[in-house]
Design goal:
The chain is an all-alpha fold and about 90 residues long. It is built from four helices and no strands. The chain has one domain. It is elongated. About 10% of the residues are buried.
Length: about 90
């Protein structure tokens, strides 16, 4: 569960998002509403709803929180290659 910290360590905004996702899944889990129908009615990709369900089953509410990545916002290209590409585009 290292990738999924307890909800108490997360911001109010992140907890709210997890609870919103759970409200959608709850209709499936408790009332048996098909995930495909829920996704279509809410305008969510079916695969996304299925992924949320899988993560919830594995990790509980904290599984519905988006994971943070240490390299977020960093470029994956070497600086020389980046310059070459930018030079071609100009």
């Amino acid at each position: 569960m290292a990738d999924h910290p307890p909800l108490t360590q997360l911001s109010e905004q992140v907890r709210t998002l997890a609870l919103e996702r759970f409200q959608l899944l709850r209709l499936h889990l408790e009332d048996g509403v098909p995930v495909a129908r829920l996704a279509q009615e809410r305008g969510i990709a079916l695969r996304t709803a299925e992924r949320w369900l899988q993560q919830y089953r594995r990790h509980g509410l904290s599984g519905l929180v988006r994971k943070t990545h240490a390299n977020r916002g960093q470029r994956k290209l070497q600086p020389e290659l980046q310059q070459l590409i930018e030079g071609v585009v100009r």
